[in-house]
Amino acid sequence: MTGIILLAGALWIAFSAAPDQGGSAQGLQTAPQEGFLAPDFTLQDLNGQTYTLSDLRGQAVLLNFWATWCPPCRAEMPAIAQVYEDYREQGFLVLAVTADDTRADAAAFAAEYDLPFPILTDSSATAARAYRITSLPTSFFITPQGIIQKVVIGGPMSEAGIRANVEGLLK
C-alpha cells in the first residue's frame, strides 16, 4: 500500500511540475503576474480597429485598465500620454482598456485628454477577467517578448515611474 501511495505522489509531482503547454507561446505559462506570459486578448478600439496582444510581439506594451469615473486614472493619463509620445518611435505602445464606460464616454475622455494611443473597449470584460482586474487603474508593463515585467495596481503612476518602467522594457 505504501508503494502505491509513493508512486501516486511521484506521478502527481511530475505532472504538476510539467510546463503549461496550453494557451502560451514557446511553452511559457500564461498568467497576469510578473514573469509570466501576458494573457492574450482581442479587442477593438473606438474606431473599430482590432488589436490582438500576441500580434504586438516585438513592441514594448503598457496595458492600462482604467475608467472615466476613476480619479487616479484621470490623474495618470497625461503622464502616460507624454511617455508614449517620447518612446513610441522606439517600439513602445500603450493600450488603454476601459471595461465599464460607454463608447461615447470613453471617446469624450480620450478627446478631453487628447490621448494619442488606442482606447480599447472591453464591454464583455473578457480582458479584465483574464487579467483579474479588481482595482483601477491597473497597469501591466509587457516586454517585447510578451512577458509581464511589472504590475502596478492603483495609482496614479508618476511620469518618472512610467518612464523608468518603459526604459526597462526597451533595454
SSE order in H/E notation? HEEEHEHEHEEH
Roughly what fraction of the amino acids lie in strands? Answer: 15-25%
User: Uncertain runs with pLDDT below 50, 5 residues or more?
Assistant: 1-25
**Count of structural domains:** 1
Largest sheet: 7 strands, mixed
Shape: globular
Briefly, what is this?
With 171 residues, the protein is α/β, with parallel strands linked by helices. It is built from five helices and seven strands; from the N terminus they run H-E-E-E-H-E-H-E-H-E-E-H. Helix 2 (71-87) crosses helix 5 (159-170).
Give the helix/strand layout:
Blueprint (H helix, E strand, L loop, with lengths): L1 H16 L24 E4 L4 E3 L7 E7 L4 H17 L4 E7 L4 H10 L6 E3 L4 H5 L7 E5 L5 E6 L5 H12 L1
Parallel strand pairs: 3-4, 4-5
Antiparallel strand pairs: 1-2, 1-5, 3-6, 6-7
Helix pairs in contact: 2-5
Describe the structure.
The chain is an alpha/beta fold. It has one domain (23-170): Glutaredoxin (3-Layer(aba) Sandwich), CATH 3.40.30.10. It has helices at 2-17, 71-87, 103-112, 126-130, 159-170, and strands spanning 42-45, 50-52, 60-66, 92-98, 119-121, 138-142, 148-153. Strands 2-1-5-4-3-6-7 form a 7-stranded mixed sheet, with helices on one face. Helix 2 (71-87) packs across helix 5 (159-170). Mean pLDDT is 86; it is low at 1-25.
